[in-house]
Amino acid sequence: MDPHFYSTIEKPAIAEFKDRGSRFLAYSFPVESVDACKKLIAGLKKEHPKAVHFCVGYRIGVEGLVFKASDDGEPAGSAGRPILGQIDSKQLTNVMVVVVRYFGGSLLGVPGLINAYKTATALALQLVPIVQKPIELMYELNFNYHQMNDVMMIVKQYNCSVVAQEAQLFVQLKIGIPKSRIEEVLNKLNDLRDVKVKLPS
């Protein structure tokens, strides 16, 4: 894996898999926080009030350290783990897949469930292009208004992202700097007079 980039998906997708009358609807989403995941799951529960299971797998963060595999009442290890396994096999992060199951009357058994959740997830992830995004390091900048143009030129030139901006007497900017360009950007910013650069507290 490239230490300067991570792989994710850019837009949601939905795929369906059927087995012996049961329907498995797999929803894949790009996500950046556990809160975002909870909101999306709550939305799906409203959308599918008659579904019996909402099984979830997600991995979040550029290091991929935040993850979940939920069987939501299915036999242990038969749903969440196969979903997360598909996300991991593609080396994705900031991705959640929720598989909504409508029971069709026949029991599938654990091997059948594993296959259904794995296949539905794989289908949903095949529908969206995988994108490479730069891993960014967060920095906080403080400077006078009249330096806004100089600062923003550097931000744009190096494809930094502006995460937050506050302006009172001074401008406070929180930016994400691509890891691969960190030295260049910090050198450029340090060349500007009276621009204070620090790690966010």
Derived from helix and strand composition plus strand pairing, the structural class reads: alpha+beta
Radius of gyration: 22 Å
Helix content: 25-40%
SS element count, helices: 5
What would CATH call the architecture of the largest domain?
A: 2-Layer Sandwich
- Morphology call: elongated
Estimate what percentage of residues fall within beta strands.
35-45%
Report on the biggest sheet.
Answer: 5 strands, antiparallel
Q: Averaging pLDDT over every residue, what do you get?
A: 96
Number of strands: 11
**Distance between termini?**
29 Å
Give the SSE string: EEEHEEHEHEEHEEHE
What is the number of domains?
2
| CATH third-level topology of the largest domain | Ribosomal Protein S5, domain 2
Key words describing this protein structure:
single chain; 201 residues; alpha+beta; Ribosomal Protein S5, domain 2; Alpha-Beta Plaits; 2 domains; five-stranded antiparallel β-sheet; four-stranded antiparallel β-sheet; 31% helix; elongated
Ordered list of secondary-structure elements with their pairings:
Blueprint: E1 5-9, E2 13-19, E3 22-30, H1 34-47, E4 53-60, E5 66-70, H2 80-89, E6 95-102, H3 109-126, E7 130-134, E8 136-143, H4 148-157, E9 161-167, E10 171-178, H5 182-191, E11 196-198
Antiparallel strand pairs: 1-7, 2-3, 3-6, 4-5, 4-6, 8-10, 8-11, 9-10
What does this entry look like structurally?
By secondary structure, the chain is an alpha+beta fold. The protein folds into two domains: 5-132, Impact, N-terminal domain (Ribosomal Protein S5, domain 2, 2-Layer Sandwich), CATH 3.30.230; 135-198, ACT domain (Alpha-Beta Plaits), CATH 3.30.70. The protein has helices spanning 34-47, 80-89, 109-126, 148-157, 182-191, and strands at residues 5-9, 13-19, 22-30, 53-60, 66-70, 95-102, 130-134, 136-143, 161-167, 171-178, 196-198. It has a five-stranded antiparallel β-sheet with strand order 2-3-6-4-5, with helices on both faces. β9 and β10 form a beta hairpin. α2 (80-89) packs parallel to α3 (109-126). The model has no long low-confidence stretch (mean pLDDT 96).
